[in-house]
């Protein structure tokens, strides 16, 4: 999906368009596939069920609307399907459970803030975060609240808005918030087992792979491998710019993009960087804002005078806000210059 309000289905052979589906809102989430259908949060207040092969609408569910918190509210909630039910959050402050076959509402739960996190499901519980600063655990079948956890908050973000999507492992649910913390919460009781506080900014990207937690930093500009039960680091690697998408993996490698417009390939176990692929937009526009070593030019604050303009620059550079896809030995990723890129596994043959 794209900010042009269009969902694209592409063939593996040459990434040629098979069909397109237009909504009335910017598409800022992934689709969820189940049983030959796909489920799309359209960015326009509707959840759509589409046939995967044709893009034909099977049904659509109307929420109470969509909203954007601020310029840095990048993503919407991706639907999650479990036991015949679709779960997703909305900018209308509600969390919804929808019957997969018919699109009818089973239950909804209201919070005091926008819900743009993708839910995690484990052991009969649904976990999600809200911009009201809380992480919620609800009963999967009834929507009844089991517990909620309030983030600490930060000087610049006193609500501690929960913008990162949760992941579950070993009885904990791990989630990053705008208060510069990553929290590991007990799934049963909702208390904090451990947290890591960062000093420079948000760490909203958390991925579990092979019993390991991978956390990507935004302003912190790091990628960290850690034990999800204790938070103890295995390794930490400095990155040239911000990470907002999650990591993707194959047997021994991880792939992650930065919002400057580079895709990195690293060893999963050691964090050793093997190669990086830049977007065409990065190559064309980098010198306007950055030095050769990817640090800002000395006169950057005379060029960029607001936080919103920093986001505009990331779009101009073909920033990678998305999570790559590993597909039959290749890596596919999207970038904010409006392109989909296919790479061979060695990163050399850009198709």
Task: Write a short abstract of this structure.
The protein has helices at 280-285, 300-303, 307-316, and strands at residues 6-10, 17-22, 32-34, 37-41, 46-51, 57-62, 80-82, 85-89, 94-99, 105-110, 120-122, 125-129, 134-139, 145-150, 167-169, 172-176, 181-186, 192-197, 205-209, 212-216, 222-226, 233-238, 248-249, 253-258, 262-267, 273-278, 325-327, 330-335, 339-344. It is mostly beta strands and 351 residues long.
- Please provide the count of β strands: 29
Shape: globular
- Unreliable residue stretches: none
Beginning-to-end CA distance, first to last residue: 20 Å
Mean pLDDT, rounded to whole units? 95
The percentage helix is under 10%
Give me the secondary-structure category: mainly beta
Which strand order does the major sheet show? 3-4-5-6
Can you lay out the helices and strands and say which pair or pack?
Layout: E1 6-10, E2 17-22, E3 32-34, E4 37-41, E5 46-51, E6 57-62, E7 80-82, E8 85-89, E9 94-99, E10 105-110, E11 120-122, E12 125-129, E13 134-139, E14 145-150, E15 167-169, E16 172-176, E17 181-186, E18 192-197, E19 205-209, E20 212-216, E21 222-226, E22 233-238, E23 248-249, E24 253-258, E25 262-267, E26 273-278, H1 280-285, H2 300-303, H3 307-316, E27 325-327, E28 330-335, E29 339-344
Antiparallel strand pairs: 1-2, 3-4, 4-5, 5-6, 7-8, 8-9, 9-10, 11-12, 12-13, 13-14, 15-16, 16-17, 17-18, 19-20, 20-21, 21-22, 23-24, 24-25, 25-26, 27-28, 28-29
């Amino acid at each position: 999906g794209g900010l042009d309000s269009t969902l694209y289905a592409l063939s593996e052979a040459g990434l040629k368009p098979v069909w397109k589906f237009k909504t009335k809102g910017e598409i800022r989430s992934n689709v969820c596939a189940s049983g030959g259908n796909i489920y799309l949060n359209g960015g326009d207040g509707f959840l759509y069920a589409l046939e995967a092969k044709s893009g034909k609408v099977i049904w659509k569910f109307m929420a109470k609307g969509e909203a954007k918190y601020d310029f840095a509210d990048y993503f919407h909630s991706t639907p999650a399907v479990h036991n015949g039910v679709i779960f997703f959050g909305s900018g209308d402050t509600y969390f919804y459970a929808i019957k997969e076959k018919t699109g009818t509402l089973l239950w909804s739960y209201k919070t005091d803030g926008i819900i743009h996190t993708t839910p995690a499901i484990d052991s009969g519980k649904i976990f999600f975060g809200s911009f009201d600063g809380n992480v919620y655990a609800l009963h999967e079948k009834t929507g009844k609240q089991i517990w909620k956890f309030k983030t600490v908050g930060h000087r610049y973000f006193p609500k501690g808005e929960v913008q990162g999507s949760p992941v579950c492992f070993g009885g904990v649910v791990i989630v990053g918030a705008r208060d510069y913390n990553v929290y590991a919460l007990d799934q049963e009781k909702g208390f904090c087992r451990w947290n890591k506080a960062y000093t420079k900014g948000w760490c909203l990207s958390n991925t579990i792979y092979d019993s390991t937690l991978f956390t990507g930093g935004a302003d912190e500009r790091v990628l960290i491998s850690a034990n999800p039960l204790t938070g103890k680091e295995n390794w930490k690697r400095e990155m040239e710019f911000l990470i907002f998408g999650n990591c993707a993996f194959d047997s021994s490698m991880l792939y992650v993009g930065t919002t400057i417009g580079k895709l990195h390939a690293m060893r999963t176990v050691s964090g050793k960087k093997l190669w990086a692929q830049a977007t065409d937009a990065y190559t064309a526009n980098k010198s306007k804002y950055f030095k050769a070593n990817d640090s800002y030019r000395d006169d950057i604050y005379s060029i960029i005078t607001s936080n919103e303009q920093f986001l505009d620059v990331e779009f101009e550079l073909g920033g990678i806000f998305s999570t790559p896809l590993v597909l039959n030995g290749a890596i596919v990723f999207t970038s904010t210059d409006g392109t989909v890129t296919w790479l061979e596994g060695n990163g050399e043959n850009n198709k």
